[in-house]
Amino acid sequence: MTEEEIEKIVDRAYAETKIRYPYQGGFFSPRLKHINHMEVGRSKIIQSWYNILLEWIYEKWNAFGVRYHTWLKRVFPRRNVLFTGHIDSSLVGQLLFAEPAKDNIPIHNMHLEFWGRTKFYQWRKFGECSSDENGKFRLEFSLIPTQAWIIKSTLHFEIYQTTDILCEKGRMVHKQSLFKTIPIKKSDLIGMEYNLRIIRLFLWQYRPDSTIPRVYIKPDGTDAPEEYPEGRVRAMTEQMIPIELTKVKHLLQIEEDPLSLSIAQIQRDYPKNLTVAIEEKLPGYTRGDDWFGIREMNGMNMSTFQPDATTPGEYWVRYFGACNYEVNDEYAFPTAEIRFRMKPNGLPTPIEIHLTGPLNRFNKDPFQKLVVTSSEGEKWLQAKRVARVTSALCAELDQHLAGTHLNTEQYSIAAHRNIRKNPVITLLMPHVKSVSLIDNTADKLLIQGYIPSATALTAKSTEKRAADLLGFQDWKGWKPMKVLSDAHLYAKAEELYWQVVTEWVDLFFSQHETEIKKEWLEIYRMSEDLVAHSVPLFTETVNWDELSPEELDFTKRRIEYLAAEYRMDLNLPRKKVKGTQKAISPITESTVFREDSDDWQNLKDMCRYVITTATFLHTWVNEHQYEDIGEVLYSCLGLRFGEKETGIMAPESDISIAPDATRSTQMMWFSNLLSRTEYGFILKNEQKDMHPEFMELLNAKKKEFAALKVNVEEIESRTNI
Amino acid sequence: MHTKPMIRPVKNSAWHYFLRWLGAGYDKLILWLTSKFFALGLALVLSFPKRYRMSHNNGIAGKGKLRIVDNPQFPEHDFFVPGRVFDARIRHAMATFLDDAMKGIRSCSIKFADTQWESPMDLECNTGEINLFWSAASFLKFAQLRKQQWGVEYEEYYRKYPQGIIGAQKALRKDATSYTNLRYYALTPFLFIGKDQIKRYAKYRVVPFDDIPETGLITHPSDWDTANQRITPHEPRGRNYLKDEFVKRVKEEGAHYRLQIQTRVANDDDNPEIFNNQIPWDEAVFPWHDLAIIDITEPLDWKESTLTSFSLNNMPKTLGIIPAKSIYDYNSLNYMRAHAELARKARLFSYKIKGFPPPIPDDDNRNKSDWDGKY
Ligand SMILES: [Fe+2]
Fold first, then answer.
1. Residue of A nearest to B132 (CA)
2. B44 and B157: one domain?
């Protein structure tokens, strides 16, 4: 079969598995309540008719509440008209972050308003202001209008937060939401200053118990600093219902009779994925070397190819497995280093696989090594599968979770905490919103849920690994991946996307130059937060003196490879905070903009990096999951050691090393959840929060992207799943 | 971003004019009622049952002469005729506490007559170029939040109203060596319609005749301790040391003061803040001029001191208080003072019924504001 013929078949399989599953439930169809109610076990899906009825009544009641409030807003509008006269009074005080209380961190540039209501419930505005750089505010107003007999006895001091950036009539506007109201007794106002003293706000707080910069959300999900848009929740519900029902059905069957459910049956019950579809048409192709090379280069892993030191045209892709992280006894997680040779068509073909670490449950030596070459027949097939599984877990944890989700969250927190007046917020917010929420869900679903039950890692080691990997990620000096050949579609797409983002950021910065420079303090404070809360540079955390020769060699290889993978220049001078060198570089060290610095370019670089990470990089690793981990036997996140001496070096037919039925259905559910519940695309602009210029720039490259098999319509605007 | 709010325009239809007229009437009514109820409350709670003044119970008076200066630098006025001599009384007192060694506001009240009450003009002055309150509304809040205990007071008031703490730090005196070296301000301005019939406003103050240093100033104020007015832990001086010093001084050498005045021409578009007693008039623009010299030559005993009362109603019409529009108006402070007559009458009546309160004994009831030594 010619390459073209194979490609046609693969393209057909792509088209076939692109099917969407529009939800067409009736009134008494089961419904899923919220993203937060997702569970790897049984999600809070409601099925009984009386529960559905109750839920319906509850929904109606909620909808009534929403309508009532909309009605109230219409009947008692808040007109932006000041009831004022001679300014003789002021409300004074200071806004500080609630935690850490001992540090008294000011909240600058918060918008504050002072309102009263008449005895007929009309709103009257008396004044407004913003907090200054020390968080202090002086909201000036005229006393007499506040003391009119018609004004009710409680006045409202209101603190506002920008919760969204929306495009209205071609202009990006801040959507302000009331964050907190402080009631003031009308009779307490007597002229001159009224001191509201220190007001501590629980606003975008860092989690105190995490080494990774995470936002604090209460265990019950309340007190989250942001909310999912309704459309996101709806998209999730509609697309996940059939998938959720399949999982529930499987779990029930397993409860009844665990042996009655085969992996093949599980696979059949879920929507067909790419590898299954190809196998139907071209049996064995997806287990072959060509496909292995294509997926390593252009699949979910988007692997980094490191040139071999001695042989030109040969490359290494390395996936570092368990390393020295805590592992369980059930699952294998060997390190897989794969040697490739570049074929004339520009695609890599694997020629050698080096596996380091335990492959069975008997030999625990972490540095035992198995080298398998492409001439070894069945053993070669097994080694490729082992490498696929290790690379899948690495892609999931290192690239997806740490590289995009957690990486973006740290920028999201720093931006939300500090940027309010600076136009950079309108540039960044549409791309960094929601990530803290989905990361919070990932804690439960992935880190504490699926990973410890279906892979070698524990929740603790997953977190440790994620923190270590963040130690390899910095905006400074980041460059798109080097294109190795014409067939290196991923690298070409990444480069093209980077060009679009660069053009867009340049345009935005030229449009808003004056304001960005004027509100530089916000950039400084964002930078300070970013650096202060950043994890240490990974190399800082290694205790070099305590490493054995094998560990030393392994660690050096790992550092060199990961630095290349995350495109981090380890030799850049990095800032020390409390004696520790931080992974993230400061954007600026000055509270006012200095022309004689690199700060302007730094800020642009940071924005380019964050936008690219939150959109393109995440979309890539997220959307290709169902292709690369959507067939249990082809690849999964962990192979079991099994009982035999051969361990994981066994054929796919040895079910004892594959995930069990529960883990299999959960894995299928997971990859569906991640790849099939899209919402918030740049060009679809469902939330009307995309900059029209950015959309135009991206749309202009539609054909170029299509040539790289990237549909620009499907690039997500943010990391929200 | 936020759009700048529009300022509600002033509407000038007949209807709106009527509404404004109605509103102004309502505000004045509230001011009148507030003042009357306050006086009644004072009479019923303090003056009659306890024989108290509103605040300055702890005082001593003296008498002598007040002589208008020969060559006034301020605009000519029919009442302040150059060289004119009045019999006069002054009374020094301390607000609220019956212990001269405590931290507190000190006062100097002047009567242009040697009588207990009747007089062509009275002035009530206190230490501090600014004070702790600025309108009737703020005074009522001040009174409401006194919450005195163990010689500590206004803690909550200071927390809520930063201006109160600034005023306290400027106005309170501790460890003064004599009433006669302090500076006293009448604060809220008065009317001044001179011979030229031009409407002016005037502020008054009393300073020592010789430019001697003021004592008792709070030189290094602490925001955390302003509410603490207690005596110093090892205070050797008694509860009456300042009054005793005054009596001794008057007997030996007399007490000599200058009454001074600041004036400014009234304009329709004057900023209301010129009436705000928290904002002194710029001395460079509105210099203080000598108005009169006061020589006190004879101390009055406790009983006579207690009977001597002052009122802002004792003023020539051309020098009276400035009308106030509401309880928030800075001039409402003087308006309310002028309406406290009932309280004075109730106090004098209670003396008749219950007898005079005894002089403050030099005992160990320190840090107290009640006659009976209870807290
Ligand atoms: Fe994701």
1. A192
2. no
pLDDT category at A328 given cuts 50, 70, 90 is: very high
Collapsing DSSP to helix, strand or coil, A524 comes out as helix
Tell me whether residue B372 is in a domain: no
Q: Mutating which of B160, B270, B333 best tests the A interface, going by the most A Cβ atoms within 10 A?
A: B160
Name the average pLDDT for chain A: 91
- Cα A434 to averaged position of ligand 1 atoms, centre (Å): 11
B39 and B144: one domain?
no
Q: Is residue B200 part of a domain?
A: yes
Contact (CB, 8 A) for A155 and A186: yes
What residue numbers bound the domain in which B43 lies?
17-54+340-355
Residue B250 lies in a domain: yes
Domain count, chain B: 2
B2–A contact, CB cutoff 8 A? yes
Per-residue pLDDT tens digits for A133-143: 999 999 999 99
Q: Where are the domains of chain A?
A: 89-203, 386-714
Nearest CA in chain B to A127: B5
Does position A565 have pLDDT exceeding 90, yes or no? yes
Q: What does the alpha-carbon distance between residue A218 and residue A209 come to, in Å, rounded to a whole number?
A: 12
Domain A386-714 classification at class level: mainly alpha
| Tens digit of each residue's pLDDT (9 = 90 or more) over A257-308 | 888 888 889 888 888 889 999 999 999 999 999 999 999 999 999 999 999 9
Q: Are A247 and A45 within 8 A, CB to CB?
A: no
Q: Which residues of chain B have pLDDT under 50?
A: 375
**Region A89-203: CATH code:** 2.60.40.1120
Please give the average per-residue pLDDT across A620-633, as a whole number. Answer: 89
Same domain for B308 and B256: yes
Per CATH, A89-203 and A386-714 having the same topology is answered no
B48 domain residue, yes or no: yes
Residues of B in contact with A194 (CB under 8 A): 160-161
E strand segments, chain B: 6-7, 58-68, 85-94, 106-111, 122-127, 184-185, 190-193, 199-208, 255-265, 289-299
Backbone torsion region of residue B290, taken as left when φ is above 0, otherwise alpha when ψ lies between -120 and 50, otherwise beta = beta
Phi, psi (5° rounding) for residue A604? -60, -45
Complex confidence, ipTM: 0.93
Among the partner residues A80, A92, A149, nearest to B162 by beta-carbon distance: A92
Same domain, B25 and B61: no
Round to whole Å and give the CA distance between B263 and B285. 10
Q: How many CB atoms lie within 10 A of CB A180?
A: 15
Give the model's confidence band at A178: pLDDT under 50 very low, under 70 low, under 90 confident, else very high: very high
